[in-house]
Request: fold
Amino acid sequence: MLHMQFSSKARIVDITESSKYEIYLHRCLTGPPSKRYKKRTSYLERAIPKGFHKKILIFEGNVIGTIEYSPSEVSYYPIVGDGVIVMNCIWVLRKAKGHDFGRMLVKDMIESEREANGFATIALTEHWSPWFRKEQMEKPGFKALESISVTHKTKHRDSAFNIYLMWMPITKGAQQPSWNQQKLLEGITTCIAHPLYHPQSYTPKQIFEKQ
Reply:
């Protein structure tokens, strides 16, 4: 599944261990920096010492991919599990499609976390965003365990979408992770570009409603 040949022109840099690309700790691959976003900064200060990693993929001198992951206790998501590493984010720019860079990033994550029992993340269907599509998460080996159908309280209010708990066990007999669906309804506050982002301007605790 992950035993593939990748481009020799691509390299992956852990920017939690290198200050050269520090700007990407506070922003996505495109768009302005969000270093002044206090919740992101606060999250990084708490998560990096506990095993959070953000890596970028550089191809022909350009930053075209990224992946974020951490132990479940400091993940974006309310996912828990013994020896579970949670992939918070993965993104490859559309212009770099066709090189299996997504699989390359996942493979690097797995090889870097050799003590993990398995890897978890979330996936979406019927959401208006192009990110975190379920079929994209299935390509490197994640499988759906559970799902929840929700609506957004301020956007596309008449359109329900599904959030999935995705799982990729590594060790034999690895115990599956679980998630707190009620907590998930509060959304994500540590990444302003995330499809489940809960803006600071929206004061109610929950930004999603379970269907």
